[in-house]
Amino acid sequence: MKREPSSIRSVDCQEAQGLIREGRVRVLDVRTPEEYRDLGHIPGAILLPVDLVASGLATLPRDGTPLLVCCEHGIRSAAAARLLESGGMSSLLNLQGGLSRWSGPRDFSSGEPFGPFGPSAWLVLNADLLSGAGRALDLACGAGRNALLLAGAGISVRAVDRDARKIEELQGTARRLALPLEAEVLDLEAGEADLGLECFDLILVIHYLHRPLFPALRRALAPGGILLYETFTRDQALRGKPTDPDFLLAEGELPQRVHPLRVLRSREGEFEGRMISAVAARKE
């Protein structure tokens, strides 16, 4: 297959400073959180480490504003820009020479790699449990930030959501990158959902709660498989949405809901600025 010429343009620090000063670009920093904080970053830059950039295909704005991708020396940013381009993004700029040559202003505040542009922190924190995963289900996947990360790691993913527009866009991204990802429109609350019998080594549910689904989740998980589940607790209603108790967990409820799966790890409280409860549980 003939490869299309790249549209990524390299810009030097002087040109980049002018574009930033005029508000004509959005900056994406693909270094580690430690580099972002300790070495300083361009003020206002989005932090999304290069290993997590696949999630950005689902989360980064596509409003026509060029994206200036940067790292410390311009190598990781070039790789990240190529991935974003292959996934269908355009108007990409790479900071030539990286921040090692940057003479403009720097901000030394901490960044959040699991903010609105990154994948689920609970998924990344439990990645060591997924070494044997061959097939995964991302339930209520939304735009697919987690599904894309999993598929990019070589895991075969079925991603389902009731939003047809998001599923169509996710299908297109997966096709362009030739990822092992099947996206499907599915209303999980219409009748009794059938997710299959012992089909998945990993089931991921992030920021979604429909209590009648728990039996189907347990059935769909293969022996030895992992369920990663995280969503909001009732304390989140005091901070904003969601407020409907049907979508909020009571204190200590989630481990009971996943029983008889064996809970390997859990957390409950404030994390990443949200009140949540989460478990990593295995089917024995």
Explained architecture:
The strands form 2 sheets. The chain has a 7-stranded mixed β-sheet with strand order 8-7-6-9-10-12-11. It has a 5-stranded parallel β-sheet with strand order 1-5-4-2-3. It is built from 9 helices and 12 strands. Strand 4 (67-70), helix 4 and strand 5 (92-95) form a beta-alpha-beta unit. Helix 3 packs antiparallel against helix 6. Helix content is 26%, strand content 25%. By secondary structure, it is an alpha/beta fold. The longest helix has 14 residues, at 164-177. The chain folds into 2 domains: 9-101, Oxidized Rhodanese, domain 1; 121-282, Rossmann fold, CATH 3.40.50.150.
**Unreliable parts:** none
Strand ordering within the main sheet = 8-7-6-9-10-12-11
DSSP strand content? 25-35%
Integer average pLDDT: 95
Query: What is the number of helical segments per DSSP (H or I, 4+ residues)?
Result: 9
CATH topology grouping of the largest domain: Rossmann fold
* Class by alpha and beta content: alpha/beta
Shape: globular
CATH uppermost class of the largest domain: Alpha Beta
CA-CA gap between termini: 45 Å
Radius of gyration, Cα only, in angstroms?
20 Å
- Count of extended strands: 12
Largest beta-sheet details: 7 strands, mixed
Q: CATH architecture of the largest domain, please?
A: 3-Layer(aba) Sandwich
Instruction: Give the count of structural domains.
Output: 2
